[in-house]
Write a structure and sequence with these properties.
With 142 residues, the protein is α/β, with parallel strands linked by helices. 55% of the residues lie in helices and 13% in strands. The chain has a domain of 96 residues. It has a three-stranded parallel β-sheet with strand order 1-2-3. Strands 4-5 form a two-stranded parallel sheet. Helix 7 links the parallel strand 4 and strand 5. 27% of the residues are buried.
Length: 142
């Protein structure tokens, strides 16, 4: 018998993390336990993680530190494979530690991984918090 491979969407994680609809949260917990024991392989994407961060922060008003812990827990869930998990770990850590937007934290982690040291942006505030990144605006030709 072939092991089922399936995508897990943002709303399942949100139900589980917030327990705002306990019946659905319980169903997600069963699915995650099935993955943990190897009965199913679950996969999700970077965009799902970004959507979780945005929703927890904007709608549920969860603190950055709590969001970081929840994202790290997702990334360490047995039986769940998350695309670009190494970048997401770095992004979640810097999101909380450097007080930057999650997407900026992700992009900075991606830049460093790609050995890019300069960011052209009008958002100097967030990118300047990364020691390994030089921030420029389009008018700053040198």
């Amino acid at each position: 018998m072939t092991l089922e491979r399936a995508f897990i969407d943002t709303n399942l994680f949100l139900r589980y993390l917030t327990n705002d609809i306990s019946e659905q949260a319980d169903q997600v917990e069963v699915l995650l336990r099935q993955a943990a024991v190897g009965e199913i392989s679950l996969f999700t994407t970077t965009l799902v993680i970004a959507e979780i961060v945005w929703t927890l922060a904007s709608f549920y008003k969860v603190s950055r530190e709590q969001i970081r812990e929840r994202i790290l827990a997702i990334l360490n869930t047995p039986g769940l494979e998350v695309a670009e998990s190494d970048l997401l770990i770095e992004a979640a850590t810097n999101y909380a530690a450097k007080n930057v937007d999650f997407i900026d934290a992700y992009n900075a982690a991606w830049m460093i991984q790609q050995q890019l040291s300069t960011a052209y942006t009008f958002d100097r505030k967030h990118f300047s918090r990364f020691e390994k990144i030089m921030v420029k605006s389009p008018g700053d030709y040198t």
